[in-house]
Structures are given as structure tokens and as C-alpha cells.
Amino acid sequence: MKLYCLSGHPTLPCNVLKFKSTTIMLDCGLDMTSTLNFLPLPLVQSPRLSNLPGWSLKDGNAFLDKTELIDLSTVDVILISNYHCMMALPYITEHTGFTGTVYATEPTVQIGRLLMEELVNFIERVPKAQSASLWKNKDIQRLLPSPLKDAVEVSTWRRCYTMQEVNSALSKIQLVGYSQKIELFGAVQVTPLSSGYALGSSNWIIQSHYEKVSYVSGSSLLTTHPQPMDQASLKNSDVLVLTGLTQIPTANPDGMVGEFCSNLALTVRNGGNVLVPCYPSGVIYDLLECLYQYIDSAGLSNIPFYFISPVANSSLEFSQIFAEWLCHNKQTKVYLPEPPFPHAELIQTNKLKHYPSLHGDFSSDFRQPCVVFTGHPSLRFGDVVHFMELWGKSSLNTVIFTEPDFSYLEALAPYQPLAMKCIYCPIDTRLNFIQVSKLLKEVQPLHVVCPEQYTQPPPAQSHRMDLMIDCQPPAMSYRRAEVLALPFKRRYEKIEIMPELADSLVPMEIKPGISLATVSAVLHTKDNKHVLQPPPRPAQPAGGKKRKRGSDDIPDCKVLKPLLSGSIPVEQFVQALEKHGFSDIKVEDTAKGHIVLLQEAETLIQIEEDSTHIICDNDEMLRVRLRDLVLKFLQKF
Amino acid sequence: MDPECSQLLPALCAVLADPRQPVADDTCLEKLLDWFKTIADAGSSLLLLQENPCLVTLLCPVLKPQDLSPRVLAFLLRLAGILAAQEDCFQHLQQGDLLPRLFGEAGPLGGAAWTAPTVRSGWIQGLCSLTQHPSALCFLAHSGAVDTIFSLQGDSSLFVASAAGQLLVHILGLSMQAPAEGHPSLQPAHWPACAQKIVGHIEESLRATATPQVTQALNVLTTMFSHCHDPWTQVLWVHLSPLVACLLEKDPVPAAHSLVDLLLSVARSPVLSSSSCGLWDTLAQTLSRLRASQAGPLALGILKLQECPKALRAQAFAVLLQPLTCVLEATTQAPGLPGSSGPGLQCGVAAIGPVASSEACAGRGGDPTDGELPLAWPPGSVGGTADAPLTAGMLLPSKAACVGLLCQTLAHLELLQPLVSGAPACGGGGGAWPAPTLPLSQPQRPSPWPWAPLLSAAVTILRLCNGSATPTSDTGTHLCAFLAGCVRVQRAALDFLGTLSQGTGPQELVTQVFAILLEYLTSPDSSPTVLKKAFQATLQWLQSSPKPSGGGDLEPHAQLFLRELLPVLPKRLCSPCWDVRDSGLEFLTQTVRRWGGQAGFRHALLASEVPELTEQLLRDPESYVRASAVAAMGQLSSRGLHIIPASPGHPGAQQKSLLEELLHILSTDSEGFPRRAVMQVFTQWLRDSHADVAADTEHFVARVLRVASQDLDWEVRAQGLELALVFLEQTLGQPSSSCPYAMTPPAAAPPSLVAQALQPFCRVQLFDFAFRALFDCDRPVAQKSCDLLLFLRAKTASYSDQQGSSSGPDVASLEAALQRWQAGDQGQPLGDLEPEAVVAVLRSLDLEGLRGALAESSDHAEQSPLSLLQDMLATAGILGENEADCY
């Protein structure tokens, strides 16, 4: 059993598990931090950006790192744990010869589609007149300014996919529900479990009859909108692969939400605008819910909230229809019936308005001071670029970073000097290390496998021993482009016996509680299922008339030698020999047993615990006599 | 006993004895017992029994205990005990063979009723009451009750078990009093049989292997040494101390908490103060034997003892400081590694090592030389002490143990900090743990108080909790993992840090304190309770920061801090957690009260958004926050720091003045807290002659009183009277009663002036308000009004003397109106009043009588025994309508 690690990013994992005869890809996250090396793509031609010295607008955005570690066309299935971890899907399904199936829950697919749509839309609506790729040549790259010259494996960076590729990729997905058991080629069974992190987010169990591997990726124990995490089903795992822990282990989400609200209120009260770069789904639902409770108490009822994204409408609507994927509280609301998320009321009362883009209705409705939620959190593309340009000059305004995926300082770099206030309150609800240690105590896997980043404290806080996974035995760590042999051997395989064959067996008790029977059968293996069938009847002597082909299929049925058991008591054996006329018998004790010497016959009988040898010189008759004598002391079956 | 009560008693006895009757609740029975106790204490119980034979009849049904409810049975046992406390009555009951049947084998003891804890408790309490004379001791000896008491010590009910222990102490004390002539024998073998039996039982329990038994014995002894200070207790201690010492040999020490209690009660006992009984050695040994968490309370107790050898104090203090030493060591760069031991370090070992001190104490009879004590222990130079691994072992086994021990240590040290300092503070500048001083009569904190190391330990703990500390050892790393984000330790450390603000020390440490406080106040991860503590500690530190010699402004250091803090405050005032907003506002109110006059602070505050945000919080959805905002705005406005903002949102809107805004809150807010806060602000404004008030004081008072009189919250009305009193004082002068021993009577004001002075009160309808309050259904309001009117009457005495009794039509109608009010009909207003009429009414009202009546507790009418008997009978349905029952 092997694990191929294709991603070095612990929260955007991409691993391939070879288990029994199947090749399973676990997630395919897209590490977009390389976009930070590029200049923002403005919606409106920005004289400031285009006049920056030296390096003018480069070509589009490039992502993705996959290595030559494994031939991706051999991947049988891809299991997706949440919508953030499927963003690289088109690169794999469309360009690698992949012919398998992708499994994901319905909300994961729908919201994943929205995220991809938004990404494609953001990139495609600002087409570039020219593209450059020569710079990727190592000799030229060396000459580029930092950090571009230090970027690794730029050759693996790819252009953004198209909507067509997205659609094609998504068409390969098969929808699954929590706890649904899916058979893969009869060899293994995979089951998604609720992971509590996002709508439809799942952990996966991959198990055969005797082995169980759990894949935990992006789980949360906090009470937010999704269904709570299913921990019980993870028990008794042989291996637990643990990825997608919180990226900001020192920040408590509650404190950060408080910080978010306070800073938002302070800015707006002073007449400033608030910009929240965010993804169109996920934490934004919780933020809107918090604001729904907070704005009245903070006297912000008159402040408009704008949500701008090509998929804003769909995201808000989708969240309301996935009732079965929501936490209990929200589920019960549906039966009242009420919308599970209070943003419906914000929309109704016109406090929250959503627009597909800056153009159109938004420009006529736009009123300041206001709060704008828009993408993309990298500040490199999307409507956020425009707002950064628009509001960056005033110290009254504030940009609040809530998504932890990008370094906010790097994201802000092309906008410097910046007068607007910047607040960093990353909200990451995924498991922190305290929760992980509780979880591991609860589910007690035999082995834990995790990215190497989790096995040591963060480099900036090397004394924080509490910020690493602490378990016994110590977790096995992996890094990018590593192949890990998982630390357990498969020892058993389940084989079925056909009823009529089972009927014919005659077990013999050889020890109290242990019975044995010999089986003569044909092992029939199909779809990774093994069945013992009764052996064909021995070929009739008159079978000569039959066609030759028929007997080809029937394996040779040799006469079965019986199996022997028991031990030979030396003294009785010697007495028996004497009774049969042998004399001059000498017995020697050896380390492993005895040697019985028949000096007259120049014959040696070596009796050991599990074997007996009769060594005589070309006297087959004698050998057979002696053999029969030995057999008398043993049980046959 | 009142004849009325005597009349009712037989009926009540019949009710109680009748198992079919519902029993009145426990409180009634308790009150009844209290009443009997009062009667018995005041006179003869025997006479009581003879005059009320029904009582004897009542006690008889106990002989068939299965018929009675456990509550009544317990009541009867206790009643019998109270009555039998007097020897003649005891004899009387004995003759009737009643007592053995109540308390002996024939009684409820062992029967079905015994399973009820109430009955067992009543049995013990009854015995406790009756054991007052030698006859009772004989009775106990014969009835075998003492053995039952022994077994009840392990009762499943904690109350019963504890009462059994106390009863044993009581019996022991009484039996030792009997041979009071002369000194007690030095040999317990010559003590009275009963005492011997109890002491024997205690000895046996102390030798027992089972911890519960040891605990029982220790608890009995603790109670005894705490309450009985007769000379024989010393003999007993000398006799038993070897057994107690044996407990220390065991591992682990059994019943450690009870042992600590016992040793401390022995140490506090005045008869045992001499060191001859080896107590100090035992204490020293105990300190070194117990686990850190158990030794902490003992160490604290030792340090609070009035007299105690120096070495023992040093050892105790070292035990208390141990966990903090461990924390400091784990985070400081240690130059000396384990194994390397220069002479300076050795000195440090003696300072914090309990073992070393203990040996010094034992070996030298509690008189170590000062030369062995540390004189300097600069933070950062400790390392490699022999005890560090030991303490680390105590701190590190689990997170819960670590957190518990640290919180306990911090709480103990916090208790010591405010004690009198033993010697002139050496300031802790050298950062030395203390050299304990000579014992004095007052409990003192160890001196010199190691202010600097303590401060640095508190700061380190806070840094470990927020993850900003850099551990230098494995211990430190573990501590860091345990403490990161631990709210409990954060709260304890912030409390402790606050109390440490009383000391003075190196500036760099103070800088560190302000830095960590700022970190906590800024951090989004601080929980609301931690934040509140951080605000409180900050305030304490700001208040104790020294004023620069030039006077006037804040110390530059604190000023700098405030300037950094002010940008944080707005964020806290906008927090989604109401308790954060609340503690932010409280902090603001306090700082403005203290530094509102300082130019630097004013400048920084006005430049911030704080005043404006505070004003907005007057409309907060949470009432506590509104109340705090009212207080803060009142304070800001008093200091001239409230500026009406040019509202950007509504440029045309008329901005209401703060006075109007507060009046609006007073008249419309649905919650009491903001309204009370408004009244307090208004009273303060009136006292301080706030500009908005001084402009037209009469108008202001009239408006406030009109609103306050309608308020449903009595505290608002009471505060209204306070405001009225301030107004009176300002107009008429201070109350004369303020100086009751003044030789000269207050100069009587000329009548014309008084009449003139009373006019404004009439105009603001102060009398209307005060008279209404006089008949208020809430007693504090009525009391306050009574005081106010008495003050007014004293002020106007001269006027009324000269005027003579007035009986004009005004007066008559006013009196009539007041009578209606008193009857509860307060619908009609009094209308316009003339000063003369008011003065006349003031004279005619029996204000002193009213004050006397109000001073009685509110249930005085219903508290009489008669009322109690009536209540109980009414519950049983014997009396018809129960008028007294107003509950």
C-alpha cells in the first residue's frame, strides 16, 4: 500500500493512494499562491499599474504543480473532500488521459462549479493582448527580479482552464451522499462522512474487508453552518491520513469574527468603506450571519452591504436549498418553513445586495459608506482589484482579510503605498492542534500520516510545541513528490465458499476449538471477488469422445495426497520397528529431534518436528515399508 | 410565655403529634425551636414543662416513631435536647424515663426512622443541646450513645458526619471541664472515663490505615483546637502529636488537607504557642513532605501566623514561590546548567529550597543565620538548582495539575501582598527573594517582598499564556503547551498582576507590565473575562504610577501607554460581545475620573473616536452597556470632554444635548440599570454644579424629580431622594447632624429667609416627591424620605417655632391628602404648596415614629411567636382564615 504525495501544500492536498488493485486520488487542490508573483488584472485600465517601472503586464495566471511521480491516466477514481480541494480537477481530467470517475457530494460539486466559474470569469473578462512564456526559460528567469527569480518549477505553471474544460471535468463526477457505500471494482469500498467544515465537505473511509484507511481533510468541530463532523465512523482505522488543518492555529475564529465586526463598525462609523476580499461561498455565510445579529446593535442598519461576484446570486440561493447538508439548527428552520440562513432576510430588507459585477446595476445603486464582499482574495483578479484602486488612497477605508489562503502583505504589495487601513483577521474553522489531539485520542488510529509541516512547530514559532501533532506512535510525515509505503501489510483476503462445496467439507478437530478440513476446489476470481467452487468431476474414462476443448478448461486433478498431522513417539516407533523385524536399532538425539539408525540396513530415519526423512540406499521396498510404519503414527485427513 | 401563645400551644402540639396532619414546613419548625430556645434561655425549662403539660405529651409519641414523619421526629429530639439542657428539667424528664427512650436504644435509633438523615441529625443536635451538665455525661456513658456517635462520624450524610464530629468535641470539652479544679492531669490516663474513651477512639483512628478514618480523627481535632483553648488541649496535643507525625511518614501522606487544617488550627491556638511541643518541627516536616498543591495552603497559613520562627517562614515562603521559580527558570537564559554550582548559585538554592530551610529549622532549633539566606537573586541568574526538577515534576504531569497549581499559587500570593509589610520595603530592585524578618505580633507579608521576581513571574506566565514567551528549556516548552490560551491562568495572573501594582521597582519591569497589558488589551484572542481583568489590572497600574515631581500631568511613561491604548479602546467599544463593550466603558469612566483634568490625556482622548462612540453606546441594545455608557458620558461631560459631534449622517438634524438625551433615557428606557445610572450622573452633576445644570438648577431638579417619581424601580426613586437632598443641602446648608458633638447649636436662620428658601422646593415640587416617597411601598425609599424630611424639619425649626402651629385651610387639605396617600390612594397630586403649610405638616407628622417603624425589619409584624403559632395552625386548617399569611 503506497501513498504518492503530489502536493506540498497541507491545506490543498493531492495524494494518490494505491490500495489493493485500485489507484485512488485523494483531492486535487490548486495552489494559487503563484499568482501573487503577477500584477493584478484590472477591470479598468489602470494607469498606475501599467506605469509601474520595469515589468509590465505579464501573461495570465499560472497554477498547478503536478509531478511526474505517477502516470495520472492510471488513476481509477478521484475522491473530493470539499470544494476548495477540487479546483485543479480540469487539469487532471482533461489533460492527462484520465478515464476514471470522480466522487463528490452534491453541494461540493455545485459550489465547486461556482468557484471555478468565478475564476474563469475573472480571468477571461480581461483578455490579454499578448502572452509571454519565454521568461520561463531558466536562463531568463534567473535575471528576473525577486521573488520571481526564486520561484520554483515555473514550467509547471499553467494557464487558467476554460469553462468548457470545467463543464467536461464536472461531467465526470458522480454524486454521493454521506455514509453511502461505494464499491470500487469489488476491491475496496469508499464512504464519504460529514467533516463539518463546509457545505457537503467530507472525509473519506477507504476500506477492504480487513483494512481501513481514513482520509481526513478539512474538518471542523466548531458549530458553524454545515452538518457536524462524523467522528465515530473514523474509529478502528489502520491508517489515518490527516490533512487540511487550520492554517492559522494561533487565531481563534471567535476572536477573529469579533475583530472583524469591531473594525467594520469603526470604519463605517467614520464614514469609511470596508472591503472584504473573499470567496463567494463558505465563511461569507457565517460572516453575514454574524453581521445580521450585529448591525442593529452597532447602529449600522443603514449601511448597505454589497456582495459582488459573477456567482453571488447562485451562491446565496444554493446555500438555502441544501438543507440536508446543514447543521441541525438550520435544518429545523426549513420545516417551519424559514430560510436556514438569515442572509435571506438581509436581502429582503435591502440591507444586502448582490451583483454579478461592477458594471450594470451596481454602479447606479452604489452608495457610500458601504461594505463590499468580493473576490478574489489574492487581490490579483476579480472586482476586488478595482475597489483596491478606488479606495486605497483614503485612510478612512479599510480592507479586512478573512481568507487565510494568501499572505495579506504579499497580496497588498502591488498596491503600495496604500493609505487605507488593512486588518488581517483570518477565519479558519478547520481543526486546530488541540482538537486534533482530542480527535486522535477518540478515534485511535494505528498510524497517522500527515504533511511534514504538521510534525514540527511553525518555523516562526519554533517554541510552540503545542502547534504540532502529538500522537503515539509518532505521525509519519510526507512531503511533496514523496512516495510513502504505508506501514502495514495486508495479511488476509476474504474468499467465499460455495454452499455445496462447504457442505462437502468434513472438519476434523485437531486441537480443542480448532478443526481442519482439506478443500479441493477451483478458485474463481472476478471483479476482485474470490469464490471457491466445487472442483469439476474427474474426466470420465469414456471422455475420449468429448471434444478436447472441454477438458482444457478443467485443471488437472491429481490424486490428492492426504495431509498428515501429529507427532511420532520415538520409543513406540522403535518398538514397532523391532516388531517388524528390524534389529540393531540405535537412537540418537539431535538438536531438532531424533535420528533412528538401522545399522544393518544402512538406513537413517531423521525425525524432526515438522518433517521425517528416510534415507536409504536405493532400496525402494525398504523405504516404502518404513514410510508406511511412520504413517501409522500420524493422522491423515 | 404569652398567655395567647399558651392557649394556642396545646392545639399545635396535637397537630404535631397527629401523623395524619400535614406538617408545616421546616422553617416553621426551626422558628418554633428558636422560640423554645429563647424561652428556655430566659427562664426555667422545668417551669415551662409544668405550665404546659402538652409538651410532655408531645414528646411521648416518639415512643412510636414509625407513626411520625422524620421532620417532626427530628424536631422532637431537638426540642427534648433544648429542654434537658437545664439539669433540673433533665432530671424531670429522666424520671419519666423519657430521655433513654428518646436517645437510647429504645428510641428511633436503629429503627426504620433512623434511615432518614434528618432524624440522625436531630438526634445529634438534641444530644448536643442536652450535654451541658455532669448528669448528661453520666447519661451518655450509660446509654452507650458515644459509640453511636463514633459510628455516625462516617455517616453517608455529610451534615450528620460533621455534626457527629462536633458533638464529640463538645462532649470531650465538657467532660474535661468536670475536674476543673486544679491543672489537668498530664497523663490522659488520669482523665475522666468519657474523655479517655473519646481520646482512645481518636488515637485508634489516627493509627488506622483507611484514609476516611484518619480524616475523621483529624477533623475532630481541628474543631477542638479551633474552639477550645483550655490548658488540657496542650496536654492532648503533646500526647497525640507523635501519632500525627507518624502520618507524615506514610507515602502519600493520608488526608493531607485535613492534616493541614489541623496543624494550622494547633498553630493558631493561643495555649499552644510555645515551641516546646515540637509544633514548628512538625510544620517544617509537613511542608517538605506534602505535594506542592497540598503544601500551598499550609505555607499560606504559616505565613499568616502571628508568631512563627523565621526559618519556618522562609521555608513556607519558598514553598509558595516554588512554582513561580520553576516558571521563571523555564523561560530565562540559565548561565548555570545542572551540575555546575558556583557559590552564588548555592546561595540561590538555599533561598528557594524547602529542604535546605527545613534542615536549618530542624537542626538549629529554628534559628538559622542570615548568612545562609540569599541577598541577591537577579532574575535571569537562576539555574541548576537542585529543586527545579522537583517542581517541574509537580507542574508538568498534566495540564490540569499545572493550571491548578499555578492558579492556587497566584491566589495565595495575592492574599499575602496586601498584608502589612514587615520592614521598610527594599523595593525589590535587586530582585531578591526575601530574607524573612523577625516575628512580630501582626501577620505580615514576608519581607523584603520579592516584588521584582514576582512581577517578572506574573508577566512570564501571561506571556506563556498568549504564546509570546520564549522557553529556554524542555520544561518551558511543556509549560508553553499547557498554558497557551488558558483562560483560568490568565485571569489569575492578571488579578495578581493588579495587586502587584502597589510596589515600586525597576522601570524596565514596569515597561514590561504595560507592554503585556497592552498585548492583552489589543489581542483579538483575549476572552471577555480576561479582557475585563486586563482592564482592571491596567487601571490599578495606571493609578499607582508615580506622579512626576512637577505635578500636573501623568507620568510620561503612563501617558505614552494611554496614548497607545486609546486607539484600542474604540475597537473594544465596537465589540460584538456586550461584556467587552461594558468593561471598556467602565475602564473609560475610571480613567476619565482620574485623569480627566490632565492636558495630555485630554488631548489624546479628544483626538480619538472614543467620546463619539461612547455617545452612540447610549443606544446599545444591552441594558448593562447603556448603563455604563451613561456613567461614562456623565463623566466625560463633567470633565468637558463631551463634544456634540457634527453628525455627518444627518447634517440637518438637531443634535440633542446630553442632558436631554439622558432625560430621555430616564423617562423611556425599559430597563432599570440605565435609569439608575442616569440618576447617579444627575446627582453627581448637581453636586459638581455641572454647567448644564447650573444654568437653571430649579428647572433641572423639577424635571428630574417629576420623571423619577413615576419610576417603577425603587432604586431610581431612592436616588431621586438623594438628588433632592443634595439640592436641599445646596440651598439650606449642610445638615446639622453632620457634627453631632458640636458645642454650639446651629444658628437658627431668620424666619423670613427660611420661607424664602423653601419657595424653590415648592416650585420644583420637591415636597410632592418626598411625601409620596414617605409612603412608598419600598422601605428604603420611605426611610430615605423620612431622613430627608427630618433634615428639612430641623432646618426650619426656628421658622415654625415663630409661626406657631398653623391650621390654615392649606394645612388641612394637605394633611387630608397625605392621609389618603398613606392609605394607598396616591392618585391625586398635592398641587401647589405654600412653605407655611409644608412646615406645619412637617411638625404635625410623627416622623420619628415613622422612622422607628421603618427601621424594624419588614417582617417584624409577622415574626412574633404568636403569629408563628397562628401560621402553623392555619396551615393545618385549625384556624380559619389566616390573615397573617402574606407570603
TrEMBL record, chain A:
SUPFAM superfamilies: Metallo-hydrolase/oxidoreductase (SSF56281). The keyword Cytoplasm applies. One of its GO terms (cellular component) is integrator complex. Residues 284-412 form the Beta-Casp domain. Pfam families: Beta-Casp, IntS9_C, Lactamase_B_6. Its main location: cytoplasm. Keywords: Cytoplasm, Nucleus. Component of the integrator complex, a multiprotein complex that terminates RNA polymerase II (Pol II) transcription in the promoter-proximal region of genes. This is Integrator complex subunit 9. It comes from Suricata suricatta. The gene is INTS9.
